[in-house]
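chain below, 205 aa
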Amino acid sequence: MNNPQKKNIRDQSIWALGNIAGDSPQYRNLVLQANVMEPLLCLIYSTLDNMLDEKTNLSLLRNATWTLSNLCRGKPRPPFETVSPALTVLNKLIKLKDPEILADTCWTLSYLCDGPNENIAAVIESGVTERCVELLMHPETKVKVPALRTVGNLVTSFDEHTQKVIAFKNCLPNLLALLYHQKKYEKRPLGLFLILLLAIKIKSI
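prediction:
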């Protein structure tokens, strides 16, 4: 992974690690114990810093973001202190426009904030919340669904965390729009409705 001279081998190694991590929580933990997180994040940082435009190294970024998602996915959850360093790079990835990268980034965030209130606080403090709210209105379902999952996890925390989320511009209007424009792919209208009710309740306090 650390050898930029052999791009094909590097790309294949990233894919292989992601594939192993995605197989089961046990294999995911083995990959994490091999200290893959630091070089993976360094690779993503380097690629983002050297992008001439968003299409440059797009395949590499998609691959790396998917692998990062698999490293954070599954229950029992991975140790938060091991995967939380990804939050800084996720804050950069979520600002891109590529739907594949956005979808995997949002799924990763949803995994990271599906846990104790301390984890949710860390995700909010990383600065990704406003962009997640914006992505509730993304035209592609594969982005909208994990963005909703992330926002839903964020507003089920302490009242102070919920207030921070719904304070962002268009949070409640976007949730309302999703509720009133349900489509067949949205499997949990009741869940969305409850998220919206919770957000409105907290805002009224």
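The domain at 7-204 is CATH 1.25.10.10 (Leucine-rich Repeat Variant). Residues 189-204 form the longest helix (16 residues).
thats it, cya
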